[in-house]
Amino acid sequence: MRCAFRNLDTKGWAAIALAVLLVAIPRPILAQAKEISADALNLEEALGLYGSDASSDGKRLRDASERAQSLGIQEDLLTRLLHESFEYGGDGAQTVAILEHTLRVLEQNLPVQLIVDRYLQGMAKGVAFDRIRSVTNALETRLLDAAVEIDVVYMGIDEPESRQDRSTLIDHTAYAFGAGVSKETLRRTLQLVSDSGQGIDAAGAVVVSVGLLVSSGMDPDRSFEVVETGWTHGYRGGDLEHLCHDLGALSSQEKDTSGEVVDQFLNRIRGREDRDRILHDLDAMHGRLGDGHHLPGSRPGDDPTKMHGPGGPPDNPGHQDDRGHHGGGKGR
Q1: In terms of domains, do 246 and 303 share one?
Q2: Per-residue pLDDT tens over the stretch 254-267
């Protein structure tokens, strides 16, 4: 071996040195750039992934990014979107198209986080870009329809503290539209809350609840009757969702094809029977009591005044949990 090394010329030694360097540095620096975590990048570095600002796409990316920031998008969310689009294999033109879509959503005063999340989810899963755009465009339509209906009932929501409540309710309403709730039923639902003197932050759980019932296959008028009965008898937040999810499940599982069981529960509510007892009995009907699996506020020893009422599950905004609850945000 030593004799073999002794016979190497200058080029041979240079080749060995290069091989050692490549072992010490597993990937070239440029290749590592695509592997870097979005958390390790700032906005300037994320923009830099696409090359010089002197290029047409580079300038459009920077202009769109600055405009998005001026309209309120969070810098870390924008950075992640730029990075994930680069990782996805998108060129500058495709990323510009994504940013221009987010700008359109921001300019319509819609919750942009929901649109960005769909892009990020689709790119992370390797979904074809045309399919991602189809999904985000459909979501934008539902968000816009939701905003129109909400702004008719809750006019003049300009206070900073109400803007997040509006965005949350738009999210909930878009979910309800996606679940099959008609605009007419949605209007009746929003008006129910408004007529009772409750603010926009209380409307989310009511909208989600009617969505749970309609998606279960219950007739829209019947769904509204259930929600109205629960609401007018003090069911709020997670309790109302619990009630409507479970009564809807009775219909979808064909346990109550005639509607008699739902009628029995509605009559118990109208008779002002204890709320915890009614929710407990619904848990029993759905087999939740034997395994220690209870909804918040229905466990033995829970204080209803702390666990019940507006609010609902605080996690997974915009998503349902394993019991069909649309968690997160105010008024759920």
Answers
A1: yes
A2: 666 668 889 999 99
List Cβ neighbours of 168 (8 Å cut-off, separation of 6 or more): 111, 201, 204, 317, 329, 330, 331
Residue 293 covered by a domain: yes
pLDDT in tens, 319-331: 344 444 444 433 3
Half-sphere exposure of 82 (CA within 13 A, CB side): 30
Summarize pLDDT for 277-291 with one digit per residue, the tens.
999 999 998 877 544
- Contact between 75 and 108 under an 8 Å Cβ cutoff? The reply is no
Final residue in a domain of this structure, among 108, 138, 168: 138
| Extended strands (E) in the chain | 319-320, 326-327
Domain that holds residue 304: 160-327
Residue 59: exposure state from Cβ atoms within 10 A (0-12, 13-18, ≥19)? middle
Distance CA 84, CA 90 (A): 9
In a domain, 17, yes or no: no
Measured between alpha carbons, how far is 1 from 78 in angstroms, rounded to an integer?
56
DSSP secondary structure string, 279-308?
Answer: HHHHHHHTT-TTTT---TT-STT--HHHHS
